[in-house]
Design a protein that fits this description.
The protein is an all-beta fold. The chain contains no helices and 10 strands. The radius of gyration is 13 Å and the shape is globular.
């Protein structure tokens, strides 16, 4: 499956929450994307080998999309959202990293 990148795609404020587990070196990261007009939202990143289809977010009744992934602590991961086939960054990312392959910046989450 191929996705296209639209640089000016703007979404409402997104949210990333982190919950660190005391019993394991894991951080539960929840991605929330308020994209009420969208049909599907996925998250792709270095944590899932950039395979967006493996991490679809679930559409909630309020129109936002939400999903949680378990990530190893003390790591940084590049990621982007795929909203109806369009790649976009999260404005709430911890930082950004230039990606030569995509010729754009990816969001980065530090856990």
């Amino acid at each position: 499956m191929y996705y296209r990148f639209i640089p000016n795609l703007k979404l409402k404020i997104m949210a990333i929450t982190k919950q660190y587990l005391k019993s394991k070196p894991i951080c539960k990261v929840t991605f929330t994307v308020p994209a009420g007009e969208a049909n599907e939202v996925k998250v792709a990143g270095s944590f899932n080998e950039w395979k967006a289809e493996t991490t679809p977010l679930k559409k909630l009744k309020n129109g936002s999309f939400k999903g949680t992934v378990n990530l190893d602590k003390d790591q940084s991961y590049e990621f982007r959202y795929v909203v109806d086939g369009n790649w976009t960054n999260d404005e709430q990312a911890d930082s950004y990293q230039w990606n030569e392959f995509a010729a754009t910046e990816n969001g980065v989450i530090h856990v």
